[in-house]
Amino acid sequence: MNPRARALDALVIVTLVTFPFWLAAIGSYTELATRVVVMGLAAMSLNFLLGYTGVLSFGHAAYFGLGGYGTAMAIKFFGFGSVPAMLFGMLVATVAAIVIGALIVRRRGVYFAMVTIAFGQVFYFIAFRWNQVTGGDDGLTGWSRQPIDFGVYKLDIAGNDKAFYYFVLCVFALCVAAMARLIHSPLGRSLVAIRENERRVRFLGLNIESRIWLSFVISCFFVSVAGGLYALLNNFIDPRALRFDLSGNFVIMAVMGGMRSFWGPLFGAAIFVALQDYVSSHTENWMFLIGLVFVLVVRFFPRGLLGVLTRGSAA
Amino acid sequence: MSAAIDRPMSQLILFNVSNGLIVGAFYALMALGLSLILNLSGVINFAHGGFLALGAYFAYSLTPFIGFWGALIVAPILVAAMGLVVERFLIQPLYGTDPLYSLLLTFGLAYMIEDGTKYVWGAQSLPFQPPKWLLSPLSSEYFFLTGYRVFMIVIVFAAVAGLFGVLGYTRLGMRIRAGTRDLETVSTLGVNTRVLRSLNFGLGVYIAGLAGVLAAGLLGLSPTIGASLIMPSFVAIIVGGLGSLVGTLLGGMLIGVASGLTAVYWPSATEAVIYVMMGVVLMVRPRGLLGEEGRLH
User: Fold this and answer.
1) Are the C-beta atoms of B72 and B213 separated by less than 8 Å?
2) Using beta carbons and an 8 Å cutoff, which residues of A are at the interface with B?
3) Chain B environment of A113 (Cβ under 8 Å)
4) Is A165 part of any domain?
């Protein structure tokens, strides 16, 4: 690990830990910081598949939303606490990813993207149409995140914004550490090898399909964690959390920050969330401007922010 | 007398099947254009629905000046011209890069077109009237068979026949088909593949524009008219089989009828059923109904 990468790690950690404090100083609010971390986790999870395996999924919002709906329903209907509810959401999303992943794993490139987009929409329509259970288009309301009771100490994530931010940050840290371990494991190395030269890896006798499937499931698992946090953050979830445009936003976050760098998607998410927050409060035509961002990033900035900054030193 | 008692149910089914066929025709038109572009250039044109919406709105704005028939001819040409500009300045520089980039670019473009149409024509849906004489039902028993629907089917058939004619019997079509198999060789043989890809893109977008004019007359105008048609078009391509235009056509009609029939028996599953069909096809026959084996990867 080179010194520049280590310095970047330190910078990211210090920034995230002190986030709510200096964000308040520049006139913003804690919830925005929480949203950056949640979206950052989603984009980094997607990048496990996109950047490190080289497989283009355009349907990750489905698993994000399933994680969110699972969490929300577990709290509302089963009376689960916040953490068990998230575990339930993760389970639902991961099972869906296991089944759908097995169906699509033989596709490559644009075709993989197309199939993932199309499959993502199934869950959108289920959430949209199954009113009695999901609340339909109006979303699922009538529940809220619960304080976490550790026995000796009760963490009030329901009432205290900062407490919730640090709860989210802890979950983020666990997930990111796990992903970093996976990337540097033999499995992760073989995924990068598939990205670089699939045919050669196949000739070396590795089972490409099962590895891509595993990468897809791992990626969806982590994105469902982000989805659960997202539902807790808003105390609300609606079908838009499952829709394809959110999948597109995840991809642009990863690309904008830099797909080939570990922290890139987090930076992309920060820029995207800040931009969306700013633009949508100043103009009605924010969709046009977000679309313009897509076009400009692709045309003039395809390596992403960290891709440009760390050129030459990246792995 | 049992036929008389059965009639309401059979009429309902017929009504929904004919609805399904018409919606399927839209899916097929959209999917054919998408397929053309995808097969030759490897680009998923996410903005395809946006171009369809533009066709509809252009027709709306043109009708007061040149009438419905004029708009039916001019609007798709305008859309194709816009498509050519987009292809030349935005998509062409991305050929040869990771397909991710063209997908993201057209995705952003879809946002821009949708919001742009909202800005220019307003977010509410607008009425769009085809000629009066086309709107009256042809039979009192089968009330749903208006002249406009028959006319639409005729236009769709003509468009599809025209497309297959162009592809099958013209020099351009021959080159497009050849380029779909092996663009490099076509280029080596002295064909300007840059122009070929542009024309092919224009052709695909033209069909979307035409579908837009027809859809405006049937569904009315709203900025999301294209966005609601693009996902089923993807499904049509996957079900029909990648690389096969006949398959795409078949896939579009098939999922249209399937969702039409589902509307009779289980209305809430109308949208979801086509995705279930896609799942079944991918499980039983991964290359799609008429797809080519080599296109699997």
Assistant:
1) yes
2) 50, 56, 58, 100, 103-104, 106-111, 113-115, 117-119, 121-122, 125-126, 128-130, 244-245, 248, 251-252, 255, 285, 287-288, 290-295, 297-299, 302
3) 44, 99-100, 103
4) yes
The one-letter amino acid at B168: G
CA-based diameter of chain B, in Å? 71
Give backbone dihedrals phi and psi of B220, rounded to 5 degrees, phi first: 80, 170
Place of tokens 């639902």: A92
Amino acid at A236: F
CB contact under 8 A, A295 and B110: no
Higher pLDDT, B267 or B52: B52
**CATH of residue A277:** 1.10.3470
Name the pLDDT band for A226 (thresholds 50, 70, 90): very high
pLDDT (mean) for A115-137: 86
Longest distance between any two alpha carbons in chain A, whole Å: 57
Cβ-defined contact of B268 to A113 (cutoff 8 Å) = no
Contact A180, A172 (CB under 8 A): no
User: Residue B274's CB: how many other CB atoms inside 10 A?
Assistant: 28
Residue A273 lies in a domain: yes
Q: How far apart are CA A244 and CA A155, in angstroms?
A: 35
Residue B82, C-beta contacts closer than 8 angstroms, at least 6 positions apart = B51, B54, B205
Q: Look at residue B221 and give its three-state secondary structure.
A: strand
Contact flag A288-B115 (C-beta cutoff 8 Å): yes
A255 chain-B contacts, CB cut-off 8 A: 100, 104
B43: chain A residues, CB-CB within 8 Å: 110
DSSP H or E stretch at residue A155: strand A154-155
Q: Specify the CATH number for B2-296; select among 3.40.50, 3.40.1720, 1.10.3470, 2.40.50.
A: 1.10.3470
> Contact, B94 vs B109, CB < 8 A?
no
B 262-291 near A (Cβ less than 8 A)? 268-269, 271-272, 275-276, 278-279, 282-283, 286
B126 beta partners: B221
Inside any domain, residue A196: yes
What's residue B1's pLDDT?
40
What residue type is assigned to position B72 of the chain? L
Q: Would you mind telling me the total number of residues written for chain B in this entry?
A: 297
Please name the residues in contact with A141: beta carbons below 8 A apart, sequence gap of 6 or more.
Answer: A135, A236
Query: Between helices A82-104 and A208-234, what is the axis angle to 10°?
Result: 150
Do residues A301 and A251 lie in contact, with contact meaning Cβ atoms separated by under 8 Å?
A: no
Mean of the per-residue pLDDT values of chain A: 89
Please give the ipTM for the structure prediction: 0.86
In chain A, the residue whose alpha carbon lies closest to the alpha carbon of B94 is A299
Please tell me the distance from the alpha carbon of residue B157 to that of residue B253, in angstroms, as a whole number.
12
Q: What is the pLDDT of residues A70-83, one digit of tens each?
A: 999 999 999 898 99
Reading the block at residue A109, the tokens are: 């490139």
